[in-house]
Amino acid sequence: MTVPSPASGARAREPFQPARRVRAFGTTVFAEFTALANQVKAVNLGQGFPDFPAPAFILQAAKEAIDGHLNQYTRSAGHPRLVHALSRIYSPLFGRTVDPLTEIVVTTGATEGIFATIQALVDPGDEVILIEPFYDSYPASVTMAGGVPVYVPLRAPAGAYSAREWSLDRDELARAFSPRTRLLILNTPHNPVGKVFTREELQAIGELAQQHDVWVLSDEVYEWMVYPDASHVRIGALPGMWERTVTLGSAGKTFSVTGWKIGWAIGPPHLVHAILMAHQWIPFCVATPLQEAVAVAFEQAEARGYFQELVAMYQAKRDKLVRALEQAGLTPTVPDGSYFVLADTGHLDVPVPQGERRDVAVCRWLTTQVGVAAIPPSAFYSPGHRHLVAHLARFTFCKTDEALDEAARRLAVRLGSG
């Protein structure tokens, strides 16, 4: 294509640059490693999407919704049947009646819930506290709102075997607050650590939020994947926290339909209304027949014992992957929640190209040479803290048993003697 010359006397146009808010963004680590896994036919234990069918009852509900002609716009804040179903599910969990019409917004996946919430609550120059490792959309959303991320890492003792050993330094967290702090983002159950924050930990975070008059965005998309000996506590249900907390959920995680992109934000009316004001200009509304199907799934889930079956399935897959990593000589951090396992790769003698982070080189080597894709967790850290996970790799177990068994075989063949 030929670029036309500027008109006589006009200033020559400078080379194209995107807007500054996106100029530093690159390809996500998930896209990069999934593409690499596909290229070399590796078992993809990197990106966290189930490779098995969703439950038949939610698929049938979607088909019936489409055949029933629920194919036009629905209410911007959420399809009526879905917000009422969510109210029935969540009201007992928060110990209060959640108003389906004023305290819930259905979003295009929890990721849009993150984006819309930050757009609604954060002004340019406001500081947002992010706990590392973070879901990589958090800092991107803060940046696009003109906010300033402030990072506080979880830390683990050497040789940590359990996710509960990862903890926040409370003094370090307290120092992160300033007069400019507007929002703190929390993720529990946590990706990628698998940590489920305890009541005491959440109370300490809540006390700081109240002391500094800060909002909390609590990303709880793995809420139904909490394993025995751990208990999921909702920070929005703690004293004094409902009024300042937005809680996110996800149908993609709950019902293994990540491609449907159905999420929700729950909170007090003033925060939910602000989120709706942003949401109405992002997608306006979310896919009507899929919202109808998720509503039906929630209406049937408890009678079917679905949540108990989900936990049992994922616990068995977690234990299978943990055994495979141990047998390959990779020390795992056993998660109490979510569907991820961090593994220590410190003993692996993998060449690291100059200028590349070690965990990136190791995950690329695992993908191309071992045939098992993992994600380098430094992608979930600020530059100043990436060294904390140089010897770790993130694996997911939301895969078929056949895929997990094949990954175990490949790990054992290539690493078992090491």
Provide the succession of SSEs: HHEHHEHEHEHEHEEHEHHHEEHEEH
Number of helices: 14
Outline the low-pLDDT stretches: none
Q: What is the strand content?
A: 5-15%
CATH-defined superfamily of the largest domain: Type I PLP-dependent aspartate aminotransferase-like (Major domain)
Classified by CATH, the class of the largest domain is Alpha Beta
Architecture blueprint of SSEs:
Elements: H1 20-23, H2 29-40, E1 43-44, H3 56-67, H4 80-94, E2 104-108, H5 109-121, E3 127-132, H6 137-144, E4 148-153, H7 170-176, E5 181-187, H8 199-211, E6 215-219, E7 245-250, H9 251-255, E8 262-266, H10 269-279, H11 288-304, H12 306-327, E9 331-333, E10 340-344, H13 358-370, E11 372-373, E12 392-396, H14 401-415
Parallel strand pairs: 1-11, 3-4, 3-5, 5-6, 6-7
Antiparallel strand pairs: 2-8, 7-8, 9-10, 10-12
Helix pairs in contact: 3-11, 4-11, 5-6, 5-10, 12-14
Q: Would you write up a description of this structure?
A:
This protein is α/β, with parallel strands linked by helices and 418 residues long. It folds into 2 domains: 20-49 and 307-415, Aspartate Aminotransferase, domain 1 (Alpha-Beta Complex); 56-304, Type I PLP-dependent aspartate aminotransferase-like (Major domain) (Aspartate Aminotransferase, domain 2, 3-Layer(aba) Sandwich). It contains 14 helices and 12 strands. The chain has helices at residues 20-23, 29-40, 56-67, 80-94, 109-121, 137-144, 170-176, 199-211, 251-255, 269-279, 288-304, 306-327, 358-370, 401-415; strands at 43-44, 104-108, 127-132, 148-153, 181-187, 215-219, 245-250, 262-266, 331-333, 340-344, 372-373, 392-396. It has a 7-stranded mixed β-sheet, with helices on both faces. Strand 5, helix 8 and strand 6 form a beta-alpha-beta unit. The termini are far apart. The model has no long low-confidence stretch (mean pLDDT 95).
